[in-house]
Design a protein that fits this description.
The complex is a heterodimer of chains A (289) and B (323). By secondary structure, chain A is α/β, with parallel strands linked by helices. In chain A, a hairpin with a 2-residue loop joins strand 4 and strand 5. In chain A, helix 1 packs across helix 3. Chain B is built from eleven helices and 14 strands. The longest helix of chain B has 15 residues. Chains A and B meet through helix 5 and helix 6 of A and helix 3 and helix 4 of B.
Chain lengths: 289, 323
């Protein structure tokens, strides 16, 4: 069992490395876009699209699929790259990010890429949509529903009041089929979150609105998978996983610096980043070292 | 009369009912006809006339509390799961406060969410200007994929509600609070996107295009002008978007002058929509009856309609100036 578990973790870590490379390549090619958030969320997206999600990349409208709502649409490079690697569309297409006529719009637009559950960009409205999906799932399938609605939310995004409307509603409705994942990377455009608009005590805030709260290292595959398992086993409440992540994870230059929130690497920076990823693959916190 | 209307329309004791009441009846019928119809309200269930639906379909009704921005996005999520959600509030709060969420989560996704704005217009009365939405048609009309409806009475509101439940498009319906005269009857045709001709006298010199509760004032003005020897046509334009361009152009060509009548800012509403078509297709002299760049205030509906220049006499005056 342990050996299988280790193999799985290793497989996911290697996948995450490939996806990080794709993210850097696509951002260099696009010459605009967000770097820090996508790299910080790569391990989580990899765990979801290569292990956790009930999905069929060849049949993206499969009725039994889990639903994924990306609320902070600006981190879409990680969504696109992970979906491509998971087989939703050709990896080659990633190079069209942000280009005229591309299905991969600068922020996700499902009229261009209908396999997305929703469009996003303006912050704060994803969780409400996920609540709507979870309400309908329960209305149609009852308490024993076998589908889960996952919503990815940024931490800075929690400044938006609409999130707290949705958090309040989900708590009222006890939506156990809803799991929110907060990318707690501590940065937003104007600086560190606790300077721009303090969010702490963030776990207590969610808990006080009736959510089951889990906190994890968002770069540790086992923690990610175990947290989702726990969240799905909680039957009384919606769950939130506060995932502590390092913005720009994997490339020294990008890490923990708010200036990489909304900027892409240029060609040279991109080449250096790719070289660093290749040689320092183990920097992604591994359970094998 | 070219089509059937309420036979007592021009009588002094014409029946009255709130337009919003017709919505409430229509929603129940829509709910019976299609189990995908669900409804949600922002703490105004009785006011927006969703109470009958909530009573008949308690599992399909969701009390959202006072959160308009989240509610329209929740509705988008429900539509993504195959439902036809109706979301109601006062027009000032939704689409007023919830506009960006409507744009991004509903229209940008082309989801069949049905937005219900009650208590629209200055005829809300005593509540005052904060509660008098006179911008709602402008802000919904500019959104791609959106359909905008403004029924003229409670019977038409019922028909419009049933019709909008059957389409796949995001739709906004504008309702009024106070009782207004019943203009139509059960046999009056209603179709989304089609103007209906409610009044015609021979060799008309002015075409009147009206929507909402003021269709009644437009008809009264036309009737009185007929007695003064001034001939007009009145169109009820219950669909602001998509506008019935053919009807507008044909009327302009026939009459040579157009008056728009709406309980809404003249900027961005029905009159603007008409002018956008005519400026390109058939430049025509126009007059605009509506609110002219002002906020509302407290008063009775009649006082306010007169104060802001939307009374029968104002319509007649505008028509005479055009001739």
């Amino acid at each position: 069992m342990n050996c299988q578990h280790d193999d799985k973790t290793k497989f996911l870590e290697e996948k995450a490395l490939e996806i990080r490379k794709s993210i850097i390549e696509m951002l260099v090619e696009a010459k605009s876009g967000h770097t820090a958030g996508p790299l910080g969320m790569t391990d989580i997206f990899t765990a979801f699209y290569f292990h956790i999600l009930k999905q069929d990349p060849k049949n993206p409208t499969w009725e039994e699929r889990d639903r994924v709502v990306l609320s902070n649409g600006h981190i879409c490079p990680v969504l696109y790259a992970t979906m491509a690697h998971a087989g939703y569309f050709p990896i080659e297409e990633l190079k069209t990010l942000r280009k005229f006529g591309s299905r991969l719009q600068g922020h996700p637009h499902r009229e261009f890429l209908p396999m997305l559950e929703t469009s996003s960009g303006p912050l704060g409205s994803g969780l409400s949509q996920a609540v709507g999906m979870a309400l309908v799932d329960r209305l149609d399938r009852g308490q024993n529903t076998n589908r889960t609605v996952y919503c990815f939310v940024g931490d800075g995004e929690l400044n938006e009041g609409q999130n707290w409307e949705a958090i309040m509603l989900a708590g009222k409705e006890k939506l156990h089929n809803l799991v929110a994942i907060v990318d707690r990377n501590n940065i937003q455009i104007d600086g560190y979150t606790e300077n721009v608009m303090p969010l702490e005590p963030i776990a207590m805030k969610w808990a006080s609105f009736g959510w089951h709260v889990l906190e994890i290292n968002g770069h540790n595959m086992s923690e990610i998978i175990n947290a989702v398992d726990t969240a799905r086993a909680v039957f009384e409440k919606p769950s939130v996983i506060i995932a502590h992540t390092i913005p720009g994870k994997g490339v020294d230059m990008f890490q923990n610096d708010p200036k990489w929130h909304g900027n892409p690497p240029n060609k040279e920076q991109g080449a250096n980043a790719l070289a660093e990823l290749r040689t320092l693959g183990g920097q992604i916190e591994s359970e094998h070292q | 009369m070219t089509i059937p209307l309420n036979s007592k329309l021009f009588d002094t004791d014409v029946e009255q009912a709130p337009i919003r009441a017709g919505f409430g009846e229509g929603l129940v019928l829509a709910g019976r006809a299609d189990e995908r119809v669900v409804a949600m309200c922002c703490d105004l269930t009785e006011s927006t006339k969703m109470d009958a639906f909530a009573k008949e379909f308690p599992k399909r009704f969701f009390e959202m509390g006072i959160m308009e921005q989240s509610s329209v996005s929740v509705a988008s999520g429900m539509a993504a799961m195959g439902k036809i959600p109706f979301v109601s509030s006062y027009a000032m709060f939704s689409p007023g406060r919830s506009w960006e969420q409507i744009r991004t989560t509903i229209c940008y996704n082309d989801r069949p969410v049905k937005l219900v704005g009650s208590h629209a217009g200055i005829s809300v009365g005593p509540d005052g200007g904060t509660h008098q939405a006179v911008e709602d048609m402008a802000i919904t009309r500019v959104l791609p994929n959106m359909v905008v409806l403004c029924p003229c009475d409670s019977i038409e509101a019922r028909k419009a509600t049933l019709a909008m439940a059957k389409t796949t498009k995001p739709t906004y319906i504008r309702l009024a609070r106070e009782k207004t005269p019943i203009v139509t009857n059960e046999d009056t045709p209603f179709e989304i996107g089609k103007a209906q001709e409610y009044f015609r006298t021979e060799s008309p010199k002015v075409g009147i295009i009206a929507c909402g509760g003021l269709v009644y004032n437009a008809l009264m003005a036309a009737k009185q002008l007929q007695e003064e020897g001034i001939n007009t046509v009145v169109l009820n334009m219950a669909t602001i978007k998509p506008l019935d361009r053919d009807a507008v152009i044909a009327l302009a060509k026939e009459c040579g002058a157009i008056v728009s009548v709406e309980e809404h800012q003249v900027a961005g509403g029905l009159g603007s929509a008409i002018a956008e078509v005519l400026a390109v297709e058939h430049p025509t002299k126009m007059a605009f009856i509506g609110v002219h760049d002002k906020f509302g205030q407290s008063g009775t509906p009649t006082e306010l309609i007169e104060h802001y220049g939307m009374g029968i006499s104002h319509i007649k005056e505008a028509i005479k100036k055009l001739i």
